[in-house]
Prior knowledge:
29% of the residues lie in helices and 19% in strands. It is an alpha/beta fold. The chain has a single domain (11-140), classed as RbsD-like domain (RbsD-like fold, 3-Layer(aba) Sandwich). Helix 3 (52-60) packs parallel to helix 4 (88-99). The longest helix has 12 residues, at 88-99. The chain is globular.
Amino acid sequence: MLKGIPSIIGPDLLKVLCEMGHGDTIVIADGNFPAASIAKDAILIRMDGHGVPEILEAILKLVPLDQYVEKPVTLMERCEGDNADISIWDKYKRIVNDAESRGEALIGTLERFAFYDEAGKAYAVIATSETNQYANVILKKGCVL
């Protein structure tokens, strides 16, 4: 155990977060996301039994968001005609507001297939058991100043 590290952050994830450099991205994927196939050129971290909000909150305690891009947090847009509940985004806004002084203005969205394309460029993908649809998040790492 280490002081100051959220207990949900295991050694594999901690190593990945340390290895990531400025501009690298990490995906926190819901349970429906094709994590293994998207991560074919990335590191896949399994965090079964956990949801996206608790992982997002823990990561943002350790990792700064990129200060040189307008939207270093990206969510997957709901498909046209889909009425899936996206109220989980309200949790994300609160978590980002609590973690970053720039607040929820840092959150952007991408259309589903554009999101998959961006996710395919990630350094790492975290597969979760999140049951909410459209709960996927891409984080772009910044610099510690």
